[in-house]
Amino acid sequence: MLTVDFTRFPLAAGDRVLDLGCGGGRHAFECYRRGARVVALDRNPDEVREVAGWFVAMRDAGEVPAGASAVAMEGDALHLPFPDASFDAVIVSEVMEHIPDDKGVLAEVVRILRPGGRVAVTVPRYGPERVCWALSDAYHEVEGGHIRIYRADELLERIRESGLAPYGTHHAHALHVPYWWLKCAVGVDNEQALPVRLYHKLLVWDIVKKPLATKLAEQALNPVIGKSFVAYATKPRLPDGPSPEPAGTADAAR
Fold first, then answer.
1. Burial of 122 (0-12, 13-18, 19+ CB in 10 A)
2. Nearest of 108, 139, 134, 129 to residue 173 by alpha carbon
3. 228-234 and 113-124: which strand pairing?
4. E strand map for 58-148
5. How far apart are CA 60 and CA 185, in angstroms?
6. What GO molecular function annotations does the UniProt record carry, in alphabetical order (predicted)?
7. CA of 7: how far to CAs of 3, 12, 168, 180, 196, in Å?
8. What are the residues whose beta carbons fall under 8 Å from the beta carbon of 16, sequence distance 6 or more?
């Protein structure tokens, strides 16, 4: 289940891509399939190990083109272990709502992104997220949980202040909103509640079968209650010539 729309965030074979706060790796896997040189970075060592294992399985299964590469590693979003201008693209999906210093995260993204490179940032949408907070304190008052809710204009202003230039936005995952509202209503850890179990089965069926009816329904509902807000931006090019060739340890992604 991808939040980033790769028709709006195009990648070329061989692009250096950082999935910052990769979690389970869904976007990193898609970039790998598209022939990128991927670094999946997260603070959670268990998720890093799992993502690394899936990278190996994908390679062994022949799911990635020649020249693609991928590595998973632990790291801190506020202190990225890469030199300036190391990456062609950066994905920051469902991360910034967890980190107190969100401006610091964007500053690091700008630093490691080459001039002309792209970034995709996704966060929970204000309206659906506000309902979750109202229904359940346990939804957000946990260690490492959500500490803020972004309005769309607030996130875009953060992006502009960092020096990036937004070029597009959209919403995603409308069909997942009722699931989280149900979980918050009955208890976020109550996986056995009948409404939660039934709706979860519906979501799994939709992900596996990809029926046209639910695809069209979600497209129609995304502008209204899409769970995620997605913003795309570029790092302006240098004014006096072509972008410098990035150098250094980003070649770990090769």
1. buried
2. 129
3. antiparallel
4. 69-74, 87-93, 113-124
5. 43
6. methyltransferase activity
7. 12, 12, 11, 27, 32
8. 36, 37, 39, 86, 87, 88, 89, 246, 250, 253
Whether the pTM exceeds 0.85: the reply is: yes
CA angle 215/217/221 to nearest 5° reads 120
Distances (CA, A) of 193 to 134, 188, 196: 20, 10, 5
Q: How confident is the model at residue 1, as a pLDDT? A: 87
Residue stretches of the chain with pLDDT short of 70: 240-254
In angstroms, the first-to-last Cα distance of the chain is: 26
Nearest to 150 by CA among 102, 183, 91: 102
pLDDT given at position 160: 98
Task: Give the per-residue pLDDT at 216.
Answer: 97
